[in-house]
Amino acid sequence: MKRFFLLLTIALRMQAAFAQDLETIFERTKGAETPTYEQGMAYFRQLDQQFLQVQMRTMGVTDSGEPLHLLVISKDKNFDLAQQRKKGKAIFLIDNAIHPGEPDGVDACQMLLRNLLTSKDGLKLPDNVVLCVIPFYNIDGALNRNSTSRVNQNGPNSYGFRANGQNYDLNRDFVKADSRNAMAFAEIFHLVDPDVFVDTHVSNGADYQHVMTLIATQHSKLGGGLGPFLHTKMEPYLYEQMKAKGYPMTPYVTNFGPNVTKEGFSGFIDYPRYSTGFAAMFQTLGFMPETHMLKSYEQRVKSTYELLKIYLEFTVTNAQEIMRLRKADREAVRTQQEFPLAWKKNESRSRPIEFLGYEHGYKPSEVSSNRDCTTTAVSRFR
Ligand SMILES: [Zn+2]
């Protein structure tokens, strides 16, 4: 009996030490810090070493000279993505730190992967979806650590720089591929061929109540069967679920003009230079969640974590339908005779959206005194 207790105590201690080992920097600092590139990669490497369901590989090279990394998380430990696709599994790809000053997705993914692998927070590895994560896309920017290039942002204490090693904004370089990062991304994208793709960001500009905002790939431009599926099934689900989790979303706030309440928000055409527009060329459902820069880092990371969970749930539930629609749309493209190259917004059509605010205005920036700096949506709700 004594021996049993001793073994049990050792086992419990080991479990506690193991769990503690997997505490993230974000958690340890109570939402004040995000890992440096080296710290972040050390954590992902640890997951790779501790769990047989994780494989981390390097692919291509970035302008920093470092290779890109891809984490593949697969319940059946089969990391051959082509084989997984043949077996009828859907693939969900998350891209983080394209703008390393916006590292919310890095911290959210560390928690998400750990919780999936240790069956915490009601999560478990799905049978029918393989999860892929690019932990840091803009490695060059992540290595260029600072605390001042996003003074308009409420945490973390320090972070990477927006541009990459050649001073390119990688979020405009997907189809042009002037950076080696974009070339490496294309290689990863075609290998992974994701059904659902999420590229995590933080907003710039207006002030409002929502912690999370969303840019979905433009559904009419995506077209085929996937466009209506995105617009009438997937987007409503994401909005509904985020509201239920206490993070009501709004479409990304694009109107900084003088008459927000009358003009509303304009839709966003995601040309292929953006990640989601690039993804749409390959019949992939693409999204850019943008947390609100003035919300605390803790709130932002937690809302990103919740949203990623919702994406995963949706993909698990709808895997068959998504894959069927993608296949049909791809077949239709094969016989398509004409392809539009330019797109224009139809300004005559609009729909109401829920937005937590009732008036808007401008206030001078306390730093530059520039009155155009910030749009403020004041609200009496909440
Ligand atoms: Zn961004």
Layout of helices and strands:
Blueprint: H1 2-21, H2 25-28, H3 37-50, E1 54-59, E2 68-73, H4 81-86, E3 90-95, H5 104-117, E4 129-134, H6 139-143, H7 180-192, E5 196-199, E6 201-202, E7 212-216, H8 219-222, H9 226-244, E8 250-251, H10 260-263, H11 275-280, E9 285-291, H12 297-335, E10 359-363, E11 374-378
Parallel strand pairs: 3-4, 3-5, 5-9, 6-9, 7-8
Antiparallel strand pairs: 1-2, 2-4, 7-9, 10-11
Zinc ion is lined by residues 99, 102, 171, 201.
Features:
12 helices; Aminopeptidase; two-stranded antiparallel ribbon; single chain; nine-stranded mixed beta sheet; 39% helix; alpha/beta; binds zinc ion; disordered C terminus; 382 residues
Round the Cα radius of gyration to an integer and report it: 21 Å
C-alpha termini separation: 56 Å
What structural category characterises the helix and strand content? alpha/beta
Shape, please? globular
Elements, N to C (H/E):
HHHEEHEHEHHEEEHHEHHEHEE
Q: So how many helices?
A: 12
Overall pLDDT score: 91
Can you give the helix content as a percent range? 25-40%
**How many independent structural domains?**
1
Low-confidence stretches: 373-382
CATH architecture: 3-Layer(aba) Sandwich
